Amino acid sequence: MAKTITLNLNKALIIEAVKSDTYLTGQIDKSADAVKNASLAYNEQAGDETYQERKLLRTLRSAVAKFEANMAEFVDSATGTISDTLALASADGSFQITIVVSDRYQNGLAGPLSSLAEEFIVNTMDYTWWQAIKPNLAETYYKFAVETLTHIRLCLAKTAPSSSNVDYTSVSGVVTSNTQEPTEQAPTEPAEQVPTEPTEQNDSEGGE
After folding, report:
1. For the sheet containing 94-102, what is the strand order?
2. Which residues lie below 8 Å from residue 22, measured CB to CB, with a gap of 6+?
3. d(Cα 123, Cα 136) in Å, to the nearest integer?
4. Whether the model pTM is above 0.85
5. What is the crossing angle of helices 11-32 and 110-130, to 10°?
């Protein structure tokens, strides 16, 4: 038995979150020295330029793939699959990630799992964005992603197995001996001795 988890995410909201994170960092850098850091802030902030948009889309695809790879161990071993519709995202940016898991998955955690999946994807994209520009900041986002992944794993805990209707008192065992008991044999009576008559012997020493 298995069940399907469908996570509803939005490409536009994820990219907006990454742009907001990079914008905040750029503004902090510019506040230190508005003249010297103006150009730095402009270039490190993810904007609407075509090359930056394409980089964000590429890292989004990669981040979704990393999320799915981390979910592989939770997929139902018999019929489980992981798939997404990112390549077919609708006009408003909505897409789905579908995971087929064990039937013992806790139904009430689908909502938190969806939010955490989005957070993991955003953190992973931030990590990729800063990896070459600010390695120390990239390391911070990497730690954020790892922490988020820990909570994602908690959402995928199994419930206890269902109880059987059979009572434990029905379990029993029987020991059977494999050695055979010796069988009693009736005593045999001795055979009856038949007396034999003496035979005549001719007297070979005398004659008539």
Report:
1. 2-10, 94-102, 82-84
2. 44, 45, 46, 126, 129, 130
3. 14
4. no
5. 40
How many Cβ atoms are within 10 Å of 23's Cβ, its own excluded? Answer: 15
- AA identity, residue 123: N
Asked whether the beta carbons of 101 and 156 are under 8 A apart, the reply is yes
CA–CA distance from 115 to each of 54, 120, 188, 192 (Å)? Answer: 24, 9, 95, 106
Question: Which amino acid makes up residue 170?
Answer: S
- pLDDT, tens only, 49-100: 899 999 999 999 999 999 999 999 999 888 778 999 999 988 789 999 999 9
Give DSSP secondary structure letters for 146-202. HHHHHHHHHHTPBPPPPPPSS-GGG--------PPPPPP-PPPPPPPPPPPPPPP--
Question: In this structure, how many other beta carbons lie within 10 angstroms of the beta carbon of residue 86?
Answer: 17
